[in-house]
Amino acid sequence: MSANFVNSVFAYTDVYHFGLKKSRNGEPASIEQEGFIDLLKKHDAIFLGDTSKKVLYLTFDNGYENGHTIKILDVLNKKRVPAVFFVTGQYVKEQPELLKRMVNEGHLIGNHSWGHPDMSTISDVRVEEELDKVRVAVAEVTGQWQMEYMRPPRGIFNDRVLEISSKLGYTNVFWSLAYKDWDTKAQKGWKYAYDNVMRQLHPGAVVLLHSVSQDNAEALGSIIDDARKQGYSFKRLDELSVKNYQ
């Protein structure tokens, strides 16, 4: 099958890799210049919450376990902070006890696809299969039969991917606060993680962190404490009722 034919079948709309203008000095992050703002609005995706309230929403991508999720869960439990964990098939298969703990401690589990593909390059049927396999497997392990949120693998998406997942009952979740934390060979210490997150804090922020990062695990407690000192509170994503697009 030629590349042109594949593109004509699967990628018949523009493909985007999610990006944003980072927050500075407490101002909201912005996607106004990224070219996909109307697409997110069309499919009621989440990027940013209510910018009039100092509320933060923690989300973690769990593609695989790197030994740090237990510490992350310990901190969240001690600080009484909820989160959403977006998991892949590998994580579901290899970490059933951690999945159970997430649910038992009041967190949500979201869908990050079974095999972490670029969904813009696979068929409609395959997109559904990628999402259904995670939903069913998580439910069998944890009893969480309702899965409302998904995060497109690699942050790559197009109209077709958002449309299919929306029809399956998912809200696509992007983020308004992130930094390069996923490279396990480029960890720079807890202070690096702390500084990157704290300098980007803004009301309504949807925070993306990767659980493979040792820096994140070690900085999380200080991030939570010092964000609270600035007047922020933490809520679970299903408490986000106002969506902003800027």
Q: What does the model show?
A:
The protein is an alpha/beta fold. The chain is 38% helix and 13% strand. It contains nine helices and nine strands. It has helices at residues 3-10, 37-42, 69-79, 89-94, 96-104, 124-142, 159-167, 190-198, 214-229; strands spanning 16-17, 55-62, 83-87, 108-111, 149-150, 156-157, 171-172, 206-210, 233-234. Strands 2, 3, 4, 8 and 9 form a five-stranded parallel sheet that branches. The protein has a two-stranded antiparallel ribbon with strand order 1-6. A two-stranded parallel ribbon has the order 5-7. β2 (55-62), α3 and β3 (83-87) form a beta-alpha-beta unit. α3 (69-79) runs parallel beside α9, α6 (124-142) packs across α7 and α8 packs across α9 (214-229). The protein is globular and about 45 Å long. The chain starts with a helix and ends in a 12-residue tail after the last strand.
Element order, helices and strands?
HEHEHEHHEHEEHEHEHE
What is the general shape?
A: globular
Query: Main β-sheet, in a few words?
Result: 5 strands, parallel
Q: State the share of residues found in helices, binned by percent.
A: 25-40%
Structural class: alpha/beta
Query: Which spans have pLDDT < 50 for at least 5 consecutive residues?
Result: 1-9
Q: How much of the polypeptide forms β-strand, as a percent range?
A: 5-15%
Radius of gyration: 17 Å
Mean pLDDT across all residues, rounded? 94
Distance between the termini: 40 Å
Helical region count? 9
Secondary structure: number of strands: 9
